[in-house]
Recover the amino acids of this structure.
């Protein structure tokens, strides 16, 4: 899976956390068959929950590409792509890393 | 004395704090990593760089009140202002209704937390100023309606019935922020609680431009505009006039009486995070009336 955070490709310790872009921490997790770097297990949980939510809402089997913009304070506006399809949404996570707000963006 | 802003580990030296935080980061400790991401930088620093960065971040060279102002401006009025504040520059019905529905819960909790300051302090001047604040915000003062009442009237003027407003529960983000403030009220020294709460009144402080704010809480021309019901202008004007005084005086008091300034700093930062989350709740509530408001977030994140 290709992941961009605020315009930069991420997912390794050198490039940054797959959710927030941070290079602190040292946590790896496999998501959708890809080994991804996260700064902490909270970011990993949020990322997994977000991918799950997109697949559930769209009926997709997988997410191939994610463009994430924003941060903890602003919430995140994202574009997810899979097999030539595309969906835009706003997401913000709750205290336990769950998807608290998810809104489609026109 | 230097402090870890997360677990409050103390040391006379910032390099020991730096080493502590780096070791927490190396084991991907959520709270420590999140603090770094939200307050310093998302790019990993060496121990030496982190020491300098922490020392600079917590430096009280202009005093505690100024430090609080500077951090507030940075977080809410900086290069990327908070999305809700951006939305307030030309507020729509959705934005204002989001404000009403979430802020009623904020205000009901507000007076309860101020009561904790009164309970904990040994200073009568602090008791008096908190009681005056409670009157202005919640009960009404010198024959004028309370902010709480003005808020409800604003909601009514936008077409919502009073019962409907009062029976709407808070969004989870508002409830979570309120839990943070209540925990602060229950567990921290009164001067810390005071700083945590009254620093939030800086949001409507017109003097923030002097400290680098890129905009005001809302465009002042709204107050003379014909595009908004009188009740909207009454609510905005009242907050504008009172909060500046409230925040300024309270921060002076905190500066004077705080026993441990570093503890005040870390408590204030926690309150800022709760406030940011709460302001997003206002905007997200607004999106329920006007889905297009999500564009405001894109304007900040894009
Ligand atoms: Zn992260
Ligand atoms: Zn610590």
């Amino acid at each position: 899976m290709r992941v961009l955070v605020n315009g930069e490709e991420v997912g390794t310790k050198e490039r940054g956390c797959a959710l927030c872009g941070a290079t602190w921490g040292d946590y790896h997790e496999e998501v959708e068959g890809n080994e991804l770097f996260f700064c902490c297990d909270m970011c990993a949980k949020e990322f997994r929950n977000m991918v799950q939510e997109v697949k559930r809402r769209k009926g997709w089997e997988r997410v191939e590409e994610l463009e994430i913009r924003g941060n903890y304070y602003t919430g995140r506006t994202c574009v997810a792509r899979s097999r030539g399809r595309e969906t835009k949404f706003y997401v913000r996570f709750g205290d336990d890393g769950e998807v608290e707000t998810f809104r489609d963006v026109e | 004395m230097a402090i870890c802003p997360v677990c409050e580990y103390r040391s006379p030296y910032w390099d020991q704090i730096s080493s502590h935080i780096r070791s927490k980061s190396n084991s991907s400790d959520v709270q420590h990593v999140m603090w770094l991401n939200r307050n310093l930088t998302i790019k990993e620093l060496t121990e030496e760089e982190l020491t300098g960065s922490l020392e600079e971040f917590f430096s009280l060279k202009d005093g505690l009140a100024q430090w609080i102002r500077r951090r507030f401006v940075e977080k809410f009025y900086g290069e990327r202002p908070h999305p809700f504040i951006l939305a307030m520059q030309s507020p729509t019905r959705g934005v204002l209704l989001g404000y009403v529905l979430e802020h009623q819960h904020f205000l009901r909790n507000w007076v309860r937390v101020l009561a904790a300051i009164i309970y904990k302090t040994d200073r009568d001047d602090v008791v008096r100023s908190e009681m005056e604040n409670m009157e202005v915000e919640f009960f009404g003062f010198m024959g004028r309606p309370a902010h709480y009442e003005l808020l409800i009237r604003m909601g009514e003027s936008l077409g919502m019935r009073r019962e409907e407003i009062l029976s709407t529960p808070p969004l989870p983000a508002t409830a979570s922020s309120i839990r943070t403030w209540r925990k602060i009220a229950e567990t921290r020294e009164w001067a810390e609680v005071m700083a945590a709460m009254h620093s939030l009144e800086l949001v409507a402080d017109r003097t923030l431009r002097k400290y680098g704010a890129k905009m005001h809480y809302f465009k002042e021309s709204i107050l003379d505009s014909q595009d908004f019901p009188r009740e909207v202008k009454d609510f905005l004007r009242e907050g504008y006039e009172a909060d500046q005084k409230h925040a300024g005086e309270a921060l002076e008091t905190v500066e004077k009486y705080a026993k441990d300034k570093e503890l005040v700093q870390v408590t204030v930062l926690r309150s800022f995070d709760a406030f940011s989350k709460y302001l997003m709740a206002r905007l997200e509530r607004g999106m329920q009336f006007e889905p297009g408001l999500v564009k405001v977030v894109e304007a900040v994140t894009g």
